[in-house]
Amino acid sequence: LILHRTDLIKLNAMLLFQHSVLWALIVGVILAFLLGVAMGGNDVANAFGTSVGSGVLTIIQAYIMASIFETLGAVLVGWSVTDTMRKGVVDTQQYENNPKELMLGQVAILGGCAGWLLIATLCRMPVSTTHSLVGATLGFSIVLRGFHGIRWMKIVDIVVSWFLSPALSGTISVILYMIVDFSVLRRKKPFECGLRVLPIFYFICIAFDVLMITLDGSRLLKFDKIPVWGAVIISLGCGLIAAAFVQFVMKPRFNRKIQSLSFLRRLTFETLKKGYSNIIRYARSCSVRSFLGWFFPDKDRIEDDQTIKLFSTIQVRFDLYRKKVRRNRDRYYRNAIAPLTALVSIYKDKNAMQEGEVPIYILLYGVFGICVGLWTLGHRVIRTVGTNMSEINPATGFTIEFGAAMTALISSKLGLPISTTHCLVRMLLKTKSLTILYSVLSENYRSSLSVSLCMLRRIFVYQHLLEQA
Question: Domain residues of the chain, as ranges?
Answer without folding.
Answer: 2-186+278-468, 189-277
